[in-house]
Request: fold
Amino acid sequence: DSGVTQTPKHLITATGQRVTLRCSPRSGDLSVYWYQQSLDQGLQFLIQYYNGEERAKGNILERFSAQQFPDLHSELNLSSLELGDSALYFCASSVATGRYNEQFFGPGTRLTVL
Amino acid sequence: KNEVEQSPQNLTAQEGEFITINCSYSVGISALHWLQQHPGGGIVSLFMLSSGKKKHGRLIATINIQEKHSSLHITASHPRDSAVYICAVRYEVSTSGTYKYIFGTGTRLKVLA
Reply:
């Protein structure tokens, strides 16, 4: 158990809908990262937040947005869902934001868009 | 051409064998990350390095910055090492801390008893 929690574990929804994925980092960790893992694209970095502020942005679509709240949990919002958004979404946390900070991964949320 | 390439894509070994997984990248990086993804999907961070060599138990990671290449070695492999091993590189795009983080496609390892 990494100490990072993600809810829900599974989510099934329809095209065009909007969903919110939630991540609670390890106690004491200030950074949260979001990743998408799909069958055709593999793992992709989406976005990182550090202490409530966006720190780095990867291949995150405009239909997706994220935020980190004062209690350091983070939410990833996915809207106007398409079939291709079906994937495993992982969050990870680390103590700080430097390149050597070890990341601890959550168990993931499996999103299925029908 | 992908910015991060791993080889081999698939690897089957007998228990006890020495295993090497390779990762090559095409950009100047600030750090390289080796990850292990278990058959159930969970991801564990193994190493983060930017130079030299790191060792943890039976796992060894090396990196050659000039050649833009890293290797992950597993000594005395065991069936519980069966997993997908993924390398990822981080490179800075500005002095303000903005970076890119690119993953390889992974190496699927199966160790037979």
About this structure: The interface with chain B takes residues 2, 42-45, 55-58, 88, 90, 92, 97, 99-105, 107-108 of chain A (CB under 8 Å). The two ends of chain A are 31 Å apart (CA to CA).
